[in-house]
Amino acid sequence: LFFLQWQLALVVLAVMPFLVAIAYRYSHVAHPTLRDVQQKLADVATVVEENIVGVHVVKAFAQEPAEEEKFRGRNEALFAQTIQANRQRATYVPLLSFLPLLAQAAVLLVGARMVAHGSLSVGSFVVFNFLLAMLVMPLRSLGMWVGQAQRATASGERIFQVLDEPEDVADSPGAIELPDGDGAIHFEDVSFSYLPGRPVLEHLDLALEAGTTVALIGHTGSGKTTLSSLVPRFYDVDSGRVLVDGADVRDVKLASLRRAIGVIAQDPFLFSTTVRDNIAFGLPELTDAEVERVARLAQAHEFVERLPQGYDTVIGERGITLSGGQRQRVAIARALAVDPRILILDDATASVDATTEARIRAGLREVMSGRTTLIIAHRLSTIALADEIVVLDDGRIACRGPHEELLETSAIYREIYDHGLLERQFADAVEARADVEEVA
């Protein structure tokens, strides 16, 4: 444009500072507003998800009106923030679209005068306007692109906020494969805390020989689950070491370590896929026969066979179509499919009835043979599977030994045992009453 007619180009250039200033202002105003829109949208999505997942709890406590009001409040906040963003767009985008047209109108006015005075030919004027029109079209879209860029930036910030979160546990430089072994575990002077100044475990020493079964018991908050979580390195110790087959777990590749450990949690997570895929999770090479074998060990085969498509039945999000006991048995089968050298049972039979528990225990006896097993349990029947019992109290080992010895020497264990015995007697009484009523 300057080469063709520099005077007219200066007319166009006179508008540019205003265009840049308004675009700059719009970007700085729109960004925090659109960031808040994304936050409010996340709040709405959270309420919706919680109410879908927890629909039974909401109905059980008759909280439908309260949850509707909560959703309405979050939705109104999102609506208000969206209105503010739209007002900003309605203010700045038309201005950014108008300024290029203003420049074009000024060129027409000045150019017409120049043509009339003979200082500019008609051909040059037509060519200049043609080129200017090609420039004006993208400039008129500048407001739209600025708005979209700020919306994308606000969305990206929330995504990168998650992606950039530092990993608490990661492979250390020079990490090695877990050495071959039989699953010996050694906790050396281990201390751990979730919050500074509030230790969960303090200077704990515990050795589990390969192939042995150890039960961890203790009152709620004594550190049982935390201790078991240090073995697959879900967390790193604050001080001390956790050794698996002589190797510090911090020096071992996470994938190698966790392939050697089977974890069965109290509240297992199942994927919205088939029973077969859940059992063979992470093991695409597992055959149908092997899937069925571990399902039998977990006492899951019978109920799976009764499902509409058997092992090919899709069980829904989080296994919602299965009962708690059925989900637990599928999770046990999934852990057994890994064929781990170490097995961690975190109250794994808490969600099943006494009959199913007895059948699972029978299967576990076979599975646990030759494997190092760490059992976290409250039921006496599950504790009976252990070769040794370790009692935790306030993050320390209060006592350890076989059942008979602890009954005589440990007041804490005696208290836990008596409490569990009462629960067992109550459960037996309820079952006996149900049998009598059924006969009657």
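Second entry:
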Amino acid sequence: MAQPRPRHEEENFLIVGNRSWFHACIDLLFTLFFWGYSLLVVIFFLSATFGFDNSLTRIVNASFNTINSDIRNLVILGLAIFIVFYVILSMNRLYNKKRFGNLKRRSYPAAVSISELEALGLMDNETIAQLQREDYVVFEKNPIIPLSSEKQ
């Protein structure tokens, strides 16, 4: 059975917020500012690493009293640390695979049959049949029969 469509298009969203245009514009401005700042940092590191001389590298190098070779050494140090960690973690993975083998041992249980559900005695047969038959069920009252220890 087909579900009815929502009356308004904004009901299609999972989260509907009531934000003013002012807050949305402020959020957009902050987001654009920080994306632009991140882009400038990436451009600075790339241009300083590869030795391109532009106004951005001159300004930042003068501000922090550095030269392009300092930035290049910093990038090389970062890459070296990354490679060392990558090699160590790869060797650890290889060691664990050789020592413990492939760890895909979990086997999932088989599907529950209707007779097993009826044997539990936690729901009546009509409820089990309704759950098997329909895709979406709304209960007014909890259909699970309480255990005898929970009643007392």
